[in-house]
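Morning run. Coffee first, then this:
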Amino acid sequence: MKEQLLAGRLVTIDGAGGVGKSTAGHATVDYLRKVGIPAYATRQPSDTVLGGYIRAHADTYSGISLACLVAGDRHHQQATEIGPALEAGKVVLCDRYLPSSLVLQVLDGVPAEKVWQLNDGVRVPDVAVFLRADPDVIASRLAARGAHDRFERDPDRSIAQQVELFNQVAYDLRARGWPVHVIDCTDLKPQQTAAFIAGLSVPLLHERTDEGTTA
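And here it is:
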């Protein structure tokens, strides 16, 4: 038996705005690097010109217009950033992915079926993490750091809706065969959440293969 390192793995982290995705993602990358695993942090929208434009104008564009921009950025990022990083054997931690579009764009009036059509061909992650927390805790975090866009600006309404929709999307994606893992981080520190995510990711990096055996 020989232990063989496989190609990289894609780990996505989704959840309501303010739940702690970015902090958990970066903490997970730090954790993996400390144990000698090459890890790479990215986000959606991406850090390209298009991704930056989307983040800067999320209050300007809405509905199908924003959904098309986000999907286009996702396809481009898959081809130019995520794909190459995976081929290089890295664990890619992506802050937001298709599940966020299935929540935010749907809240923005776009049917889920249309979101799926726009994202046809997007890679299924190897680990799809959903971070969950009590809406009141999320609201307090948003109040502390400030809202990033109109989806976070009304925590009494939007955050509760996001939490409910993310729960539904997690259920639906699991039924589609996605490797969904829900982590309640209401009472967890970022390092604890990172340890959970790393624990889901590391076992996928190795497999046992028979070598030189005969029947």
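Residues 1-6, 207-215 have pLDDT under 50 and may be disordered. Good start to the day.
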